[in-house]
């Protein structure tokens, strides 16, 4: 179901200016009536698909509903002079070969790697006038052990072994991200030739098995057990366990006690930047600059990108094969292949003609778990937050911890579980899990001198509030105020520094960015919705029921490749 450039090329064989500007498309002669391929949605995944197809000689057009490209990977100046990565805010999971193949550095992509990368301050009374403790983690293992030893000498000794354990698992799983899932249909019902060809899909699995070896049962437990069970086997200190557990629940409507939460953690440690495994970084100019670089790569080779052009229907001929799309204004655009970077729900329940889809398939798509706990808050401040556990320098310049993912209300895994339980009762968390990032600490181009942009990735907030109540401005502001009160407890003076804010609840993320339920993954990253079961288990060799229609977004294998 996921798009493959080589396969699509067979199926359809047959500028320095930012690529989203309408003038760019008009310069190429405007909208044509026919292309080899059409991509629905100019999110970064759709743009990558378009760039690869165009490099293969497949004449490709991209249609985007919004006025700006990038989907969730976008930079917007919501508050004058403050440039926000409004949804997606960190980069790591974009596959390394994409940087090289699409020449993204040549097209302007600049990255700021973070080291250290994680900061968890404590809320505690400092004994004898000392500042509260904090946990600062980075690439220096000796320094990490020193930090962890504040809480447990035993954990400090165990941490290098844990990191090596997780690195080995990531090494084994990583190759599976770049190939189509095992073709079970070919093994079961295919011809002899199809069965022989499908053997190649087994290679990554066999390689993973060789890497994991006798440790396979322990790694299986990581993928299926609650993350708390796995972390309890390694560590005893709650600040360390809770900090690590945040990556197991972030963006997911799950508790650290939920079985299978370990895979989400693994997904977030499998990335890397510029040859550094596990590294996360900020994009110079915000996440929109990543989308710009991909778009320029695509348009340089001849792709056409159109904004404010909404696709409302995928057209199918009398034989059940895709033949193009219809735009909102009624314009028909013919193509032999259509790639959708929108969610599976929008693709198959709204755009594709239902009469051509198997009833069971439609039912499964409609039942996808899209629950999201996330409310994203973008904040403009006139100074850096000064944490009790790490006070600011006299001149107010950024310190190492300011470049980190700063974890608040994360001193104990019980706090994370309680925040989750609030949402299960239809309530925004009383003490939300907060990941606070300050990209302007490394990229001063994002804000006026002395000022900063702050990204608050918070959870848990239900899509619908208790009693079936919808989010309104009062509820939205009440929750944001609660988050600010929490930050104030760690960094007094934060609320006074706020210049403006942008609050995006799950319904807002759905309405603006097309994320179903506000889910950054399009559908949950649970074991029943991964690999050949993403988005749903198929009997047709991971092929869409409509010939010529492909998914190329987060709802297809291998899932999201950025952090929203």
TrEMBL record:
A molecular-function term among this protein's GO annotations: oxidoreductase activity
A GO CC term assigned to this protein in UniProt: mitochondrial matrix
Domain of life of the native organism: Eukaryota
Domain Amine oxidase per the UniProt entry, residue ranges: 277-385
InterPro entries per UniProt: Amino_oxidase, FAD/NAD-bd_sf
Keywords: FAD, Flavoprotein
Cell compartment(s), UniProt: Mitochondrion matrix
Primary location group: mitochondrion
Record's function text: Probable oxidoreductase that may play a role as regulator of mitochondrial function.
Similarity annotation: Belongs to the carotenoid/retinoid oxidoreductase family.
Subunit relationships: Interacts with COX5B; this interaction may contribute to localize PYROXD2 to the inner face of the inner mitochondrial membrane.
Protein's name in the database: Pyridine nucleotide-disulfide oxidoreductase domain-containing protein 2
Phylogenetic placement of the source organism: Eukaryota, Metazoa, Chordata, Craniata, Vertebrata
